[in-house]
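quick one, 333 residues, struct below
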Amino acid sequence: SKSQYGPRDAVLWIFRDVTSLAKAKRALAEDLRRSRLILSSIGDAVIVTNAQGCVMFANHVAASLCGMPSKAMRGRGLYDAVRIVENEGGTDRLLAQKALDANLATSIPNLTIQSGPEETRQVSLSLGPLNDNAGICFGTVVVLRDLSLRKENILLQNTLKTLDYALELTKSASCRMNLLTRKIEGSPRLADFWPVRDGKMIRSREFVCPEDLPAFSKSTEALFSRKKAMTTWTFRSKFFGDLRFYRARASIGRNELGEPCLIGVIQDITEIASVSRRLQGTMDLWNMAIETLPVLFFVKDADNDFRVVQCNRKFAETLGRSKEEILGRTDLE
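---
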Protein backbone atom coordinates (compact mmCIF):
# COMPACT_ATOMS: atom_id res chain seq x y z
CA SER A 1 0.00 0.00 0.00
CA LYS A 2 1.02 3.64 -0.32
CA SER A 3 1.08 6.34 2.32
CA GLN A 4 2.31 9.96 2.48
CA TYR A 5 5.73 8.57 3.34
CA GLY A 6 5.96 6.48 0.19
CA PRO A 7 5.42 2.75 -0.63
CA ARG A 8 5.21 0.41 2.34
CA ASP A 9 4.43 -3.24 2.87
CA ALA A 10 1.33 -3.89 4.99
CA VAL A 11 0.34 -7.06 6.84
CA LEU A 12 -3.27 -7.73 7.73
CA TRP A 13 -3.61 -9.78 10.94
CA ILE A 14 -6.89 -11.59 11.63
CA PHE A 15 -7.55 -13.28 14.98
CA ARG A 16 -10.43 -15.62 15.76
CA ASP A 17 -11.46 -17.03 19.12
CA VAL A 18 -11.68 -20.84 18.78
CA THR A 19 -12.47 -21.57 22.43
CA SER A 20 -16.03 -22.69 21.63
CA LEU A 21 -14.73 -24.93 18.85
CA ALA A 22 -12.26 -26.62 21.21
CA LYS A 23 -15.03 -27.17 23.77
CA ALA A 24 -17.27 -28.64 21.07
CA LYS A 25 -14.52 -31.05 20.00
CA ARG A 26 -14.01 -32.22 23.60
CA ALA A 27 -17.75 -32.70 24.05
CA LEU A 28 -17.94 -34.64 20.78
CA ALA A 29 -15.09 -36.92 21.85
CA GLU A 30 -16.83 -37.58 25.16
CA ASP A 31 -20.14 -38.32 23.39
CA LEU A 32 -18.33 -40.71 21.06
CA ARG A 33 -16.70 -42.55 23.97
CA ARG A 34 -20.02 -42.80 25.80
CA SER A 35 -21.84 -43.99 22.67
CA ARG A 36 -19.28 -46.71 22.03
CA LEU A 37 -19.60 -47.88 25.64
CA ILE A 38 -23.39 -48.05 25.38
CA LEU A 39 -23.36 -49.83 22.02
CA SER A 40 -20.82 -52.36 23.30
CA SER A 41 -22.77 -53.17 26.46
CA ILE A 42 -26.37 -53.49 25.24
CA GLY A 43 -27.75 -56.95 24.53
CA ASP A 44 -28.67 -56.44 20.86
CA ALA A 45 -26.49 -56.79 17.78
CA VAL A 46 -25.59 -53.24 16.72
CA ILE A 47 -23.73 -52.37 13.52
CA VAL A 48 -22.80 -48.86 12.38
CA THR A 49 -21.86 -48.15 8.76
CA ASN A 50 -20.44 -45.09 7.01
CA ALA A 51 -22.17 -43.24 4.16
CA GLN A 52 -20.82 -45.80 1.66
CA GLY A 53 -22.46 -48.69 3.53
CA CYS A 54 -19.21 -50.14 4.91
CA VAL A 55 -19.15 -51.45 8.49
CA MET A 56 -17.33 -49.11 10.88
CA PHE A 57 -18.42 -50.67 14.18
CA ALA A 58 -19.95 -53.96 15.31
CA ASN A 59 -20.44 -54.97 18.92
CA HIS A 60 -19.73 -58.44 20.25
CA VAL A 61 -23.37 -59.52 19.91
CA ALA A 62 -23.30 -58.65 16.19
CA ALA A 63 -20.06 -60.61 15.78
CA SER A 64 -21.63 -63.66 17.42
CA LEU A 65 -24.86 -63.41 15.43
CA CYS A 66 -23.07 -62.92 12.07
CA GLY A 67 -20.47 -65.60 12.74
CA MET A 68 -17.31 -63.52 12.32
CA PRO A 69 -15.09 -61.36 14.58
CA SER A 70 -15.82 -57.64 14.84
CA LYS A 71 -12.43 -56.81 13.28
CA ALA A 72 -13.23 -58.99 10.27
CA MET A 73 -16.56 -57.21 9.79
CA ARG A 74 -15.00 -53.74 9.69
CA GLY A 75 -14.53 -52.38 6.19
CA ARG A 76 -16.89 -54.92 4.63
CA GLY A 77 -20.11 -53.93 2.93
CA LEU A 78 -23.07 -54.27 5.30
CA TYR A 79 -24.56 -57.23 3.45
CA ASP A 80 -21.17 -58.90 3.09
CA ALA A 81 -20.97 -58.90 6.88
CA VAL A 82 -24.68 -59.63 7.41
CA ARG A 83 -25.10 -62.52 4.98
CA ILE A 84 -28.79 -62.76 4.14
CA VAL A 85 -30.11 -66.13 3.00
CA GLU A 86 -32.57 -65.42 0.20
CA ASN A 87 -36.19 -66.45 0.55
CA GLU A 88 -38.02 -68.25 -2.25
CA GLY A 89 -38.96 -65.01 -3.98
CA GLY A 90 -35.45 -63.60 -3.64
CA THR A 91 -36.75 -60.33 -2.20
CA ASP A 92 -35.16 -60.25 1.28
CA ARG A 93 -31.75 -58.88 0.24
CA LEU A 94 -33.34 -56.50 -2.30
CA LEU A 95 -35.67 -55.10 0.37
CA ALA A 96 -32.81 -54.65 2.83
CA GLN A 97 -30.56 -53.00 0.22
CA LYS A 98 -33.32 -50.58 -0.83
CA ALA A 99 -33.77 -49.56 2.81
CA LEU A 100 -30.01 -48.88 3.10
CA ASP A 101 -29.86 -46.91 -0.17
CA ALA A 102 -32.91 -44.79 0.73
CA ASN A 103 -31.45 -43.69 4.11
CA LEU A 104 -34.84 -44.16 5.75
CA ALA A 105 -35.70 -45.69 9.11
CA THR A 106 -37.26 -49.06 8.49
CA SER A 107 -37.78 -52.49 10.04
CA ILE A 108 -37.77 -55.90 8.41
CA PRO A 109 -39.41 -58.24 10.92
CA ASN A 110 -38.07 -61.58 9.70
CA LEU A 111 -34.84 -62.44 7.87
CA THR A 112 -32.64 -65.51 7.69
CA ILE A 113 -28.90 -64.83 7.96
CA GLN A 114 -25.83 -67.06 7.79
CA SER A 115 -24.19 -67.28 11.22
CA GLY A 116 -21.78 -70.14 10.54
CA PRO A 117 -20.69 -72.61 7.87
CA GLU A 118 -23.84 -74.68 8.36
CA GLU A 119 -25.85 -72.50 10.70
CA THR A 120 -28.53 -69.88 10.08
CA ARG A 121 -30.51 -67.59 12.38
CA GLN A 122 -33.91 -65.96 12.10
CA VAL A 123 -33.48 -62.27 12.90
CA SER A 124 -35.27 -58.96 12.58
CA LEU A 125 -33.39 -56.05 11.03
CA SER A 126 -34.01 -52.44 12.02
CA LEU A 127 -32.20 -49.69 10.17
CA GLY A 128 -32.04 -45.95 10.78
CA PRO A 129 -30.04 -43.12 9.14
CA LEU A 130 -27.53 -40.98 11.02
CA ASN A 131 -27.76 -37.38 9.80
CA ASP A 132 -25.49 -34.51 10.70
CA ASN A 133 -26.72 -31.03 11.62
CA ALA A 134 -26.98 -30.14 7.94
CA GLY A 135 -29.34 -33.05 7.35
CA ILE A 136 -26.73 -35.02 5.35
CA CYS A 137 -26.61 -38.75 6.01
CA PHE A 138 -23.13 -39.80 7.19
CA GLY A 139 -23.95 -43.38 8.12
CA THR A 140 -26.50 -45.93 9.27
CA VAL A 141 -27.20 -47.74 12.53
CA VAL A 142 -28.44 -51.31 12.14
CA VAL A 143 -29.95 -53.40 14.94
CA LEU A 144 -30.29 -57.16 14.58
CA ARG A 145 -32.31 -59.18 17.05
CA ASP A 146 -32.40 -62.97 17.31
CA LEU A 147 -36.07 -63.98 16.96
CA SER A 148 -35.41 -67.30 18.65
CA LEU A 149 -34.74 -65.50 21.95
CA ARG A 150 -37.81 -63.27 22.28
CA LYS A 151 -41.45 -63.11 21.36
CA GLU A 152 -42.21 -61.10 18.25
CA ASN A 153 -44.28 -58.40 19.94
CA ILE A 154 -41.52 -57.60 22.46
CA LEU A 155 -39.03 -57.64 19.61
CA LEU A 156 -40.85 -54.97 17.62
CA GLN A 157 -41.34 -52.68 20.62
CA ASN A 158 -37.68 -52.84 21.61
CA THR A 159 -36.55 -52.34 18.01
CA LEU A 160 -38.48 -49.09 17.86
CA LYS A 161 -36.92 -47.99 21.15
CA THR A 162 -33.43 -48.75 19.86
CA LEU A 163 -34.09 -46.82 16.66
CA ASP A 164 -35.49 -43.93 18.65
CA TYR A 165 -32.25 -43.68 20.63
CA ALA A 166 -30.30 -43.27 17.40
CA LEU A 167 -32.77 -40.67 16.11
CA GLU A 168 -32.65 -38.77 19.41
CA LEU A 169 -28.95 -38.10 18.84
CA THR A 170 -29.87 -36.09 15.71
CA LYS A 171 -33.09 -34.54 17.10
CA SER A 172 -35.17 -36.64 14.73
CA ALA A 173 -38.14 -38.98 14.84
CA SER A 174 -39.24 -41.74 12.49
CA CYS A 175 -42.78 -42.24 11.34
CA ARG A 176 -44.95 -44.61 9.33
CA MET A 177 -48.43 -43.27 8.61
CA ASN A 178 -51.19 -45.35 7.04
CA LEU A 179 -52.52 -43.12 4.24
CA LEU A 180 -55.98 -44.72 4.43
CA THR A 181 -56.55 -44.39 8.18
CA ARG A 182 -53.85 -41.75 9.08
CA LYS A 183 -52.89 -44.08 11.93
CA ILE A 184 -49.23 -43.69 12.84
CA GLU A 185 -46.44 -45.92 14.05
CA GLY A 186 -42.84 -45.05 14.85
CA SER A 187 -40.83 -43.13 17.39
CA PRO A 188 -42.66 -42.23 20.63
CA ARG A 189 -40.96 -38.82 20.31
CA LEU A 190 -42.80 -38.06 17.05
CA ALA A 191 -45.28 -35.77 18.86
CA ASP A 192 -42.33 -33.54 19.86
CA PHE A 193 -41.72 -32.83 16.16
CA TRP A 194 -45.17 -33.09 14.58
CA PRO A 195 -48.28 -32.83 16.79
CA VAL A 196 -50.45 -35.93 17.15
CA ARG A 197 -54.15 -35.78 17.96
CA ASP A 198 -56.26 -38.89 18.67
CA GLY A 199 -53.44 -41.09 17.42
CA LYS A 200 -53.18 -39.25 14.11
CA MET A 201 -50.82 -36.57 12.80
CA ILE A 202 -52.59 -33.22 12.55
CA ARG A 203 -53.10 -31.66 9.12
CA SER A 204 -50.24 -29.67 7.63
CA ARG A 205 -52.35 -26.49 7.47
CA GLU A 206 -52.55 -26.56 11.29
CA PHE A 207 -48.82 -27.03 11.78
CA VAL A 208 -46.91 -25.44 8.90
CA CYS A 209 -46.54 -21.64 8.73
CA PRO A 210 -48.96 -20.21 6.12
CA GLU A 211 -46.15 -18.69 4.05
CA ASP A 212 -44.49 -22.13 3.75
CA LEU A 213 -47.68 -24.05 2.90
CA PRO A 214 -47.57 -23.55 -0.91
CA ALA A 215 -44.10 -25.09 -1.24
CA PHE A 216 -45.00 -27.80 1.30
CA SER A 217 -48.16 -28.71 -0.64
CA LYS A 218 -46.30 -28.72 -3.95
CA SER A 219 -43.72 -31.22 -2.65
CA THR A 220 -46.48 -33.37 -1.13
CA GLU A 221 -48.39 -33.43 -4.41
CA ALA A 222 -45.24 -34.45 -6.31
CA LEU A 223 -44.79 -37.38 -3.93
CA PHE A 224 -48.41 -38.56 -3.94
CA SER A 225 -48.68 -38.27 -7.74
CA ARG A 226 -45.53 -40.45 -8.00
CA LYS A 227 -43.63 -37.68 -9.83
CA LYS A 228 -40.98 -38.20 -7.15
CA ALA A 229 -40.07 -41.44 -5.39
CA MET A 230 -38.92 -39.45 -2.37
CA THR A 231 -39.28 -35.84 -1.32
CA THR A 232 -37.87 -33.44 1.27
CA TRP A 233 -39.74 -30.65 3.02
CA THR A 234 -38.09 -27.71 4.78
CA PHE A 235 -40.57 -25.54 6.65
CA ARG A 236 -41.28 -23.46 9.73
CA SER A 237 -43.91 -23.74 12.46
CA LYS A 238 -45.15 -21.68 15.40
CA PHE A 239 -47.40 -24.44 16.70
CA PHE A 240 -45.36 -24.93 19.89
CA GLY A 241 -45.11 -21.18 20.59
CA ASP A 242 -41.74 -20.05 19.28
CA LEU A 243 -40.70 -20.23 15.64
CA ARG A 244 -39.14 -23.62 14.86
CA PHE A 245 -37.47 -24.90 11.69
CA TYR A 246 -38.00 -28.47 10.44
CA ARG A 247 -36.80 -30.76 7.68
CA ALA A 248 -38.69 -33.94 6.76
CA ARG A 249 -37.95 -36.65 4.21
CA ALA A 250 -40.31 -39.42 3.17
CA SER A 251 -41.34 -41.92 0.54
CA ILE A 252 -44.45 -44.00 -0.04
CA GLY A 253 -44.40 -47.72 0.68
CA ARG A 254 -46.82 -50.42 1.80
CA ASN A 255 -47.40 -52.14 5.13
CA GLU A 256 -47.83 -55.85 5.81
CA LEU A 257 -51.44 -55.69 4.56
CA GLY A 258 -50.47 -53.99 1.31
CA GLU A 259 -51.95 -50.64 2.39
CA PRO A 260 -50.13 -47.45 1.26
CA CYS A 261 -48.01 -45.80 3.95
CA LEU A 262 -45.94 -42.66 4.24
CA ILE A 263 -42.54 -43.66 5.65
CA GLY A 264 -40.04 -41.05 6.71
CA VAL A 265 -38.06 -39.02 9.22
CA ILE A 266 -38.60 -35.50 10.57
CA GLN A 267 -35.81 -33.43 12.11
CA ASP A 268 -35.79 -30.22 14.15
CA ILE A 269 -33.17 -27.98 12.49
CA THR A 270 -33.88 -24.78 14.45
CA GLU A 271 -30.36 -24.65 15.91
CA ILE A 272 -28.85 -25.28 12.48
CA ALA A 273 -30.88 -22.45 10.98
CA SER A 274 -29.88 -20.11 13.82
CA VAL A 275 -26.18 -20.88 13.36
CA SER A 276 -26.52 -20.39 9.60
CA ARG A 277 -28.08 -16.97 10.08
CA ARG A 278 -25.34 -15.90 12.49
CA LEU A 279 -22.69 -17.20 10.12
CA GLN A 280 -24.24 -15.29 7.24
CA GLY A 281 -24.26 -12.13 9.35
CA THR A 282 -20.58 -12.62 10.15
CA MET A 283 -19.79 -13.19 6.48
CA ASP A 284 -21.66 -10.01 5.52
CA LEU A 285 -19.62 -7.99 8.04
CA TRP A 286 -16.43 -9.63 6.82
CA ASN A 287 -17.20 -8.80 3.19
CA MET A 288 -18.07 -5.22 4.14
CA ALA A 289 -14.75 -4.87 5.98
CA ILE A 290 -12.82 -6.24 3.01
CA GLU A 291 -14.47 -3.79 0.62
CA THR A 292 -13.67 -0.79 2.83
CA LEU A 293 -10.02 -1.68 3.55
CA PRO A 294 -7.57 0.77 1.84
CA VAL A 295 -5.48 -2.18 0.63
CA LEU A 296 -5.43 -4.58 -2.31
CA PHE A 297 -6.98 -7.71 -0.82
CA PHE A 298 -7.10 -11.11 -2.50
CA VAL A 299 -7.09 -14.79 -1.53
CA LYS A 300 -5.78 -17.66 -3.67
CA ASP A 301 -6.40 -21.41 -3.48
CA ALA A 302 -3.03 -23.15 -3.14
CA ASP A 303 -4.62 -26.52 -3.97
CA ASN A 304 -6.11 -25.28 -7.25
CA ASP A 305 -3.29 -23.62 -9.24
CA PHE A 306 -3.42 -20.57 -6.95
CA ARG A 307 -6.66 -19.39 -8.50
CA VAL A 308 -8.22 -16.26 -6.97
CA VAL A 309 -11.16 -17.16 -4.76
CA GLN A 310 -11.77 -13.77 -3.13
CA CYS A 311 -10.77 -10.15 -3.70
CA ASN A 312 -11.98 -6.67 -2.89
CA ARG A 313 -13.15 -3.93 -5.24
CA LYS A 314 -9.90 -1.95 -4.96
CA PHE A 315 -7.90 -4.98 -6.16
CA ALA A 316 -10.24 -5.38 -9.16
CA GLU A 317 -10.04 -1.68 -10.02
CA THR A 318 -6.25 -1.78 -9.87
CA LEU A 319 -6.21 -4.60 -12.45
CA GLY A 320 -8.79 -2.81 -14.55
CA ARG A 321 -11.21 -5.77 -14.42
CA SER A 322 -14.46 -6.64 -12.68
CA LYS A 323 -14.46 -9.02 -9.71
CA GLU A 324 -16.39 -11.54 -11.82
CA GLU A 325 -13.56 -11.57 -14.40
CA ILE A 326 -10.93 -12.19 -11.71
CA LEU A 327 -12.51 -14.82 -9.45
CA GLY A 328 -11.61 -18.38 -10.39
CA ARG A 329 -8.65 -17.37 -12.58
CA THR A 330 -4.89 -17.71 -12.21
CA ASP A 331 -2.46 -14.80 -12.43
CA LEU A 332 -1.58 -15.82 -15.98
CA GLU A 333 -5.21 -15.93 -17.01
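The first strand starts at residue 2 and ends at 3.
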